[in-house]
Amino acid sequence: MDIRWDWRLFEMLNFDGGATVDAFMTAVSGVFMWIPLYVLILYIIWRRYSWRGLLVFVVSVAVAMALADMVAGVFKHTGLLKNLWASFPARLRPMWNDMLCDVHVPSFDHGKYGTVSAHAATIAAMATLSIVAIRRWWYAAVIVVVALLICYSRIYLACHYPFDILLGIALGVLSGGVGAGLFVWCRSLKFFDKKKL
Questions:
Q1: Which one of 16, 59, 187, 196 has the lowest number of neighbouring Cβ atoms within 10 Å?
Q2: Cα within 13 Å of Cα(29), Cβ side
Q3: Cβ neighbours of residue 76 under 8 Å, at least 6 residues apart?
């Protein structure tokens, strides 16, 4: 895919921060760093809705994130639906683009194509659903900052252009909306309800 309007913005956001920043951004882009946050989210959901609510939340998150990841894979020709749109002209990740100058690439251990960003899609899906479920302004602020940091880490690591990230966020909000709809629907059926704390 020949999209170039965001190349300059990518070059402004991608820089060599040295070994410490490289390690930090790699950790931000991974899963292990965020395990305490995910545990906190599950604890908050359990406190608000009990075990049934937690079960519905986990299923809803799984649905939302799987949907986001699978649809993102359609455009990168990866995952379960990789052959759904075989003629789609996939866009190379910045790290594989020879036409860009001075790209800082901490690691080439990534696939060839980057649009749509599955990282952005899955974190946006989880953020959207959890904001609907938790309904606290402080939590919404924290998870939005976390999501933006994860999205930026993908640009820093030269895995995605800004447009890839924006498409991923849009996809994640939509799939997160599907998950939130499932969560709210189960609550409306009285499968679970908010605990009286």
A1: 196
A2: 23
A3: 82, 90, 111, 113, 114, 115, 116, 118
Residue 116 burial (C-beta neighbours within 10 Å; 0-12, 13-18, 19+): buried
C-alpha–C-alpha distance, residues 152 and 12, integer Å: 12
CB 136 within 8 A of CB 91: no
Whether the ω angle into residue 116 lies within 30 degrees of 0, i.e. cis, is yes
| Whole-structure pTM value | 0.93
What is the residue whose two structure tokens read 């519905």? 56
The Cα-based distances of 175 to 95, 151, 157 in angstroms read 28, 17, 25
Paired tokens of 68? 């986001």
Non-local (6+) Cβ contacts of 187 within 8 A are 49, 53, 56, 193
CA 98 from centre of chain: 27
Q: What is the pLDDT of residues 115-168, one digit of tens each?
A: 999 999 999 999 999 999 999 999 999 999 999 999 999 999 999 999 999 999
